[in-house]
Amino acid sequence: MGRVAGDPSARSALVLGLCGLAVIVFWKKAPARLRHVPGPLAAVVVVAALAASTQADVRKLSVGALVDAVSLPTAESATALLTPHALGTALVFALIASAESLFGASAVDRMHTARCGGRTGARRWCWC
Question: Measured at the alpha carbon of residue 52, what is the angle toward residues 65 and 30, in degrees to the nearest 5?
């Protein structure tokens, strides 16, 4: 905490972070038409506007660098997807996603069965 007190940049970042947390915490008390926007998204917008309007001395992300880093796929990059390493990685991701879906369906079954008596039919989902 001593570092934050002596560094103006860290102090600005701390204040902006606390403002973001305050927006998230108090977002439930916002007017109903504003609550269609998720609280974390509102916090990001508010904090970004605060940082820009006060010219806060904090690090900012350069979107131009992100756009330059993304490139469209080419024929060479498409053939790289057929390597055993890439196919194995895709298989692992698919298995993890299936397990996550089944765990979620199981949790919903437990909650839903207690209230309404229905089931999700997760076995059918897994084989689709």
Answer: 115
The mean per-residue pLDDT over the stretch 101-124 comes to 68
Contact between 120 and 112 (Cβ < 8 Å): yes
Whether residue 102 is predicted with pLDDT greater than 70 in this model: the reply is yes
Strand residues in the chain grouped as ranges (E)? none
- Nearest-angstrom CA–CA distance, 15 and 50: 10
Query: Within 10 Å of residue 16's Cβ, how many Cβ atoms?
Result: 18
pLDDT higher than threshold 70 for residue 28: yes
Question: What is the model's pTM?
Answer: 0.49
How far, in Å, CA of 92 to CA of 79, rounded?
19
Furthest C-alpha separation in the chain: 60
